[in-house]
Design goal:
The complex is a heterotrimer. Chain A is of the alpha+beta class. Chain A is about 25% helix and about 30% strand. Chain A has four helices and nine strands, in the order ββββαβαββαββα. In chain A, helix 1 crosses helix 2. Chain A is globular. Chain B is an alpha+beta fold. Chain B has three domains: about 45 residues, OB fold (Dihydrolipoamide Acetyltransferase, E2P), CATH 2.40.50.100; about 70 residues, Beta Barrel (OB fold (Dihydrolipoamide Acetyltransferase, E2P)); about 80 residues, K Homology domain, type 1 (Ribosomal Protein S8, Chain: A, domain 1, 2-Layer Sandwich), CATH 3.30.1370. A five-stranded mixed β-barrel of chain B has the order 8-9-10-12-11. A four-stranded mixed beta sheet of chain B has the order 1-6-7-3, with no helix packed on it. In chain B, strand 11 and strand 12 form a beta hairpin. In chain B, helix 4 packs antiparallel against helix 5. The longest helix of chain B is centred in the C-terminal third of the chain and has 16 residues. Chain B is flat. Chain C is an alpha+beta fold. Chain C has a single domain, classed as 2-Layer Sandwich (Ribosomal Protein S5, domain 2), CATH 3.30.230. Chain C is built from five helices and twelve strands. In chain C, the strands form three sheets. In chain C, strands 1, 2, 3, 4, 5 and 6 form a six-stranded mixed beta sheet that branches. Chain C has a four-stranded antiparallel beta sheet with strand order 10-9-11-12, with helices on both faces. In chain C, strands 7-8 form a two-stranded antiparallel ribbon. In chain C, strand 2 and strand 3 form a beta hairpin. The longest helix of chain C has 30 residues. Chain C is elongated. Classes of the chains: A alpha+beta, B alpha+beta, C alpha+beta. Chains A and C meet through strand 3 and strand 5 of A and strand 3 and strand 6 of C.
């Protein structure tokens, strides 16, 4: 059976309702929440930024620039089958790609020998957790007054059977018929649409990757709108 | 240093990194902005000031960035053979060398002068790669005794001080307290218990209402009540 | 910035006059807000805010073999994490309460109060029992994370529902939930941590007060038959407590229980609907 309709009734290029807020963690220098989907069954991520601050021990410092240290974590009960608390190989990989997704937009040469700690926590998971985390982290960095060229926005593009689809859910990730399901999370810079993070899991024809990028550009523009509104303190929740 | 923003006739707008503040060749990129394709673009989240030829961002958040000459309040973290490691917030480690103390201090009695946990009013003497050097060699600097220490957003300090100190003096006089405001957002208040509390509340009120109109009148009312 | 000596002295001297920096009484809690249903892949979840302190608790259910000497009883495991997200936890200086201690103190309070009817968690004696996982996470540490964690665990347990269990396959169908609440009794534990600052005692410290405290005592109290029962005690911190201080704390604990617990319980009850 071909994939012609999405289980939640969305259009192929439609993102789930987005919620974005800043200032959710008072102790942090900057913080934000970003969710794809509603509080009932969406993916909810919060992020806190601490820094720039001195990096100890000294041997971890880079002589001419600061570093971003990202730490991605999921609540053990954020997923249907409980995961053990603490870092996993998956969370370490996501922490690394998050660091890379954020590093090119931040002016790291401004404060050599320092660190900006970016803490991401997934409160509830329904696919695209790394994307929600990166979106929250980008907002938190800006909120923390970090000197940066622009924001980044992140979304999971999927190929479900032969359809390029925006913001796939867990249910869609599990689609097995036809060409199956392919997950392609993108993170793009806000002004220049450059790719700071890209992964792919599944199978896509080489000729169609460009189409996926096109879908990502459109979707990230929408995500960016919500990030900006949250930072400007405007009421910001699409039902 | 940004002047205390008066009751502004025009409310400045918040911009985000990457946002175009203003277009056109007439403008120059000031603090936290860059010029790109004929536009002045924001490099930081904050308030855009595009009233003059030089366009800049006024930061509203973020850690304190020390500048030479700033007076700051710091807490002693550690003592070693030739000075004190001091936490003043911000990206750098800070140090008060023995040589920057106003009087002779015996190398063996550094803790007698100031011990871990004590707070001082200091001046930023120099900023080098690897850290900030502090000094006590100026009037009004030194260890702070008694009273209480509070923290506010360092970007609101100009507002709390007011034009030529008008706001902070109003608070001091009305609550009969001594107040020292560190440019790093730490503020020391000393008086009787209720005076200190009232001063603290007044300062927090200023911070919350910083961009509103008629702030001076509101504060006067607050202090009377 | 860590606690300054002048603020430590100020906190101590104010307390001698029964006062605090934020004008609370020594035995007043800050505003407590409890919410549930904040993480819906869990069988139950809660968020507790005490002042600016915020913690999130999740309850998940699993199926396991019972312990050898409790063949017909369910099991429980409590974990706690102070992530980096919640604020600086200084490497040097007197030790702040750590995650393991919080987890174990919350565990004891729940276990010893008799809140959970363990026998009703038995699926097949000697072979399969339900295991309740309680995971506590600190989102913002503004003092008194322990009491918040205990409230959160109690709330999450009361709101939790069993997942669907396929008896034939003997497996849980994760993501599918029933309407059946956990087998709980009315003995809900309420943990109160008293902190000794200088020569005085206070409750619900903010961060600075917590850093100024040299000793603390957590009591978990329940009131099963109109009688105050202490179900668990934990003393922490380096300084000692006198017998007289212990007595004073127990008396205050009764008063605070009567004052605060009904309010907290009311919040949780209204969320159950």
């Amino acid at each position: 059976m071909a994939y012609t309709k999405r289980s939640d009734g969305r259009k192929m290029d439609e993102i789930r309702p987005i919620k974005a807020e800043i200032g959710v963690i008072p102790n942090a220098d900057g913080s934000a929440l970003f969710a794809f989907g509603g509080e009932e069954d969406g993916t909810v991520a919060i992020a806190a930024v601490y820094g720039p601050k001195p990096l100890h021990p000294a041997h971890m410092q880079e002589p001419d620039r600061g570093i971003i240290r990202a730490n991605y974590n999921m609540l053990p009960f954020s997923v249907t089958e409980r995961t053990r608390p603490g870092p996993s190989r998956r969370s370490k990989e996501i922490s690394m790609i998050t660091e890379n997704a954020l590093s090119s937009i931040v002016d790291l040469e401004r404060f050599p020998g320092t660190v900006i700690d970016v803490e991401i926590l997934i409160l509830q998971a329904n696919a695209s957790t790394r994307c929600a985390g990166i979106n929250a982290a980008a907002m938190a960095l800006a909120h923390a007054g970090v000197v940066m060229k622009e924001l980044v926005s992140s979304v999971s593009i999927g190929k479900i059977d032969d359809k390029i689809v925006t913001d796939i859910t867990k249910e869609e990730e599990d689609w097995e018929e036809g060409e199956g399901s392919t997950d392609i999370p993108f993170t793009l810079t806000s002004r220049t649409k450059q790719i700071t993070h890209l992964q792919l899991d599944g199978g896509i024809q080489t000729s169609r990757l460009k189409e996926a990028y096109g879908a990502a550009v459109k979707a990230c523009e929408k995500v960016y709108e919500y990030q900006v509104r949250a930072l400007k303190g405007e009421k910001n929740k699409r039902e | 240093m940004a002047e205390a923003s008066k009751e502004t006739k025009k409310t400045r707008r918040i911009v985000v990194p990457g946002e175009i503040i203003i277009s056109g060749e007439d403008h120059l990129p000031g603090d936290f902005t860059r010029k790109e394709d004929g536009n002045i673009v924001a490099n930081r989240y904050g308030l855009a000031d595009d009233t003059g030829r030089v366009v800049r961002i006024i930061p509203i958040s973020g850690t304190f960035e020390p500048r030479r000459g700033n007076t700051v309040i710091g807490r002693i973290e550690d003592i070693n053979f030739n000075g004190w490691s001091i936490d003043i917030g911000g990206p750098y480690s800070s140090f008060l060398p023995l040589s920057e103390c106003p009087r002779f201090i015996d190398r063996n009695s550094l803790p007698d002068f100031a011990k871990v946990g004590d707070v001082m009013n200091l001046k930023v003497w120099s900023i080098k790669k690897g850290g900030v050097d502090l000094s006590l060699k100026s009037r009004g600097l030194g260890k702070l005794e008694g009273g209480r220490l509070i923290k506010i957003n360092p970007h609101k300090v100009p507002r709390v001080i007011g034009k030529e100190g008008s706001m902070i003096n109003l608070i001091k006089n009305s609550t009969k307290t001594e107040i020292t405001v560190g440019q790093n957002g730490y503020i020391w208040i000393k008086g009787d218990v209720s005076g200190e509390k009232k001063a603290e509340d007044a300062i927090n009120f200023v911070v919350e209402e910083a961009i509103s109109q008629g702030l001076t009148e509101k504060i006067e009312k607050f202090l009377k009540g | 910035m860590k606690l300054s000596n002048i603020n430590k002295k100020k906190i101590e001297s104010l307390l001698t006059d029964g006062k605090r920096l934020d004008e609370r009484n020594p035995f007043d809690y800050r505003k407590v807000k409890i919410e549930t249903g904040i993480s819906n892949n869990a069988e139950g979840s809660s968020r507790v805010r005490i002042g600016k302190t915020e913690i999130i608790v999740g309850v998940k259910l699993g199926v396991q073999e019972p312990y050898p000497d409790h063949e017909d009883e369910g099991t429980m495991m409590v974990s706690m994490e102070f992530g980096q997200i919640c604020g600086e936890r200084y490497e040097s200086g007197p030790p702040r309460i750590n995650a393991i201690e919080v987890a174990r103190v919350v565990d004891r309070g729940v276990r010893e109060s008799g809140l959970i009817d363990w026998k009703k968690l038995c699926i097949k004696e000697g072979e399969k029992v339900w295991c309740i996982f309680i995971d506590i996470y600190c989102i913002n540490d503004a003092g008194n994370v322990l009491d918040a964690s205990s409230m959160g665990a109690a709330a999450a347990l009361q709101i939790a529902r069993f997942p669907v269990y396929d008896k034939k396959e003997e497996k849980i169908k994760f993501g599918e939930f029933t309407d059946d609440p956990l087998p709980l009794t009315e003995n809900i534990p309420f943990a109160m941590t008293f902190h000794k600052v200088g020569d005085n005692i206070l409750i619900d410290p903010n961060r600075e007060e917590e850093d100024a405290a040299e000793a603390r005592l957590t009591l978990a109290i329940s009131k099963p038959k109109k009688e105050y029962i202490i179900n668990s005690i934990q003393k922490g911190g380096r300084a000692p407590l006198t017998g007289e201080e212990l007595e004073r704390i127990v008396k205050e604990a009764e008063k605070i229980y009567d004052k605060i617990f009904p309010e907290i319980n009311k919040q949780t009850e209204s969320l159950k609907k």
